[in-house]
Amino acid sequence: MKLAMGFVLFAVMAVPGVQAKKAQEHEQGVLLSMDSKACGAALKTGKSLTGELLGTDSQKKQTQEVLCQEYTLQTDRIVYRIRPKDEKHAVLLPIGQTVEFRIEKDSMYLRNLQSDRKERQYTVVSMQPRQDANDTKDTHNNEAKN
Q: pLDDT digits over 60-89, tens only?
């Protein structure tokens, strides 16, 4: 009997914690643009297998610049510049459409409302407050004071 009562008490106390963890707020923003930015270099060598085995040093080295997608995401108060964490399997996002996102620790998790709604992980490159949001806030504050 005590074991059953203990189990029921545990279940009742654990349920609110599980619900609170699942109910994370998603913010909304609009994707304004996508640019290709330099994010490193890839080194290609022209060394062949026979050159490796025989030890000949007729090696060509070519450096190629690697480009990454960088998106501008605008919310009510902040403009984010973000890059996909998984650069090899990056998905093109629709510019001009509303997306949902959440920030957890050092990553942004973004999902497109119009497509598969799958969350994808992004790195925040920069954040800037919106100037027009500050101007609107200042106007409302001045009107409230008068």
A: 677 877 788 899 999 999 999 999 998 777
DSSP state of 24: P
Contact 79/127 with Cβ under 8 angstroms? yes
Judge whether 6 lies within some domain: no
The answer to whether residue 9 is domain-embedded is no
Query: Largest alpha-carbon pair distance within the chain?
Result: 86
Domain that holds residue 117: 27-132
Instruction: State CA 58 to chain mean position distance.
Output: 43
pLDDT tens digits, residue range 7-57? 544 555 555 544 444 556 889 999 999 998 887 777 776 666 666 666 665
Give kind and range of the element (H or E) at residue 28: strand 27-45
- Tell me how many domains the chain contains: 1
* Phi–psi pair at 14, nearest 5 degrees: -80, -30
In the block, which residue shows the tokens 């510049």? 81
Q: Are 113 and 100 in contact (CB under 8 A)?
A: yes
Residue 141, both tokens: 């504050």
Asked whether residue 144 is assigned to any structural domain, the reply reads: no
Whether this prediction's pTM lies above 0.70 is answered by no
- Indicate whether 12 belongs to any domain: no
